[in-house]
Design a protein that fits this description.
The chain is of the alpha/beta class. It has eleven helices and ten strands. The protein has two domains: 2-230, Rossmann fold (3-Layer(aba) Sandwich); 242-273, no CATH class. It binds adenosine-5'-diphosphate and magnesium ion (MG).
Length: 273
């Protein structure tokens, strides 16, 4: 479990001015959960993400990972092994000349023996659908493939939690689908706890829980159905809703009798036909 308790995070802009990036955030992430965090630019999502594995520590308040304080230096290594991070730009995350060297980087740092590293690398690549790409150069892969190699590098560390900060933002629709399918697979089939940050609302469909951030605060929290029901509030917060929720909202305004929540095309079809 990850517990965020009354966290305030201030960045220093200059000697006199502070930026309040997180303003009294509290939340809990349960094991096995698929949590999605949304919010417009500058709402504090990336700052929050970096608190989950001690890349940042709170100005006040506390973050606990499986009971360990992220501000306690004795635990930082353990916390970073438990909480893997995937960032937006795959090119900044892949550093080696072959895919397998890249994925091996983390396990090597754990001091594992070569045979164990080999099997972890192969296993991790299989789990992200990149088996057979061991000898390939990351440079020549598509964006979606690169991001899946980055994910393999994280899961080769056998983490409990994976935090993804807008991992699909730089990808084309195909790459986005590949990455989302991989992340969902790892959650459902491997039991990995996922904290997925995105500005694509449709990526929140199917999540166990959605948190909406606004100006460093947690504005809304609930199931995707509970969140996307609030079309007008989300628009007020300068956010979109998934296309089918938007369509249902407009049809309802036109007087069509659509009862209940609609998030997917299938749900829309069953309401209309
Ligand atoms: P998001 O990921 O939702 O776009 P961020 O967490 O990156 O939001 O930023 C939240 C606020 O903190 C913004 O006002 C941003 O300008 C500011 N900020 C982010 N990183 C830094 C930094 N390293 N130094 C100073 N201010 C920062
Ligand atoms: Mg961000």
């Amino acid at each position: 479990m990850i517990e965020v308790k009354n966290v305030i995070h201030q960045y220093k802009r200059d000697s006199e001015h502070q930026i309040m990036a997180l303003n009294d955030i509290s939340l809990t992430v349960q094991e096995g959960e698929f949590l999605v965090i949304i919010g417009h630019n500058g709402s504090g999502k990336s700052t929050l993400a970096k608190h989950f594995n001690s890349l940042l520590i709170p100005t006040s308040g506390e973050v606990l990972v499986d009971g360990m304080l992220t501000s306690d230096w004795d635990h930082v290594w353990d916390i970073r092994t438990r909480v893997g991070m995937v960032f937006q730009n795959p090119d900044n995350q892949l550093i080696a000349t072959t895919v397998e060297e890249d994925v091996a980087f983390g396990p090597e740092n754990l001091g594992l023996d070569p045979a164990t590293i080999r099997s972890r690398v192969d296993e991790a690549l299989d789990k992200v659908g990149m088996g057979g790409f061991q000898k390939r150069e990351p440079h020549y892969l598509s964006g979606g493939q690169k991001q899946r190699v980055a994910i393999a590098g994280v899961i080769a560390m056998r983490p409990e939690y994976m935090v993804l900060d807008e991992p699909t933002a730089m990808l084309d629709p195909k790459g986005r689908r590949e990455v989302m399918n991989t992340v969902r697979h790892l959650n459902k089939n491997e039991g990995l706890t996922i904290i997925h940050i995105t500005h694509y609302m449709e990526e929140a469909i199917g999540a166990d829980r959605v948190i909406v951030m606004e100006e460093g605060k947690k504005m809304l929290e609930g199931t995707p159905q509970e969140i996307f029901r609030q079309v007008e509030l989300l628009k007020h917060l300068r956010m979109d809703v998934p296309p089918m929720a938007e369509l249902a909202y407009r049809l309802q305004k036109k007087g069509l009798n659509i009862v209940g929540d609609v998030l997917t095309v299938d749900e829309m079809v069953s309401k209309l036909c």
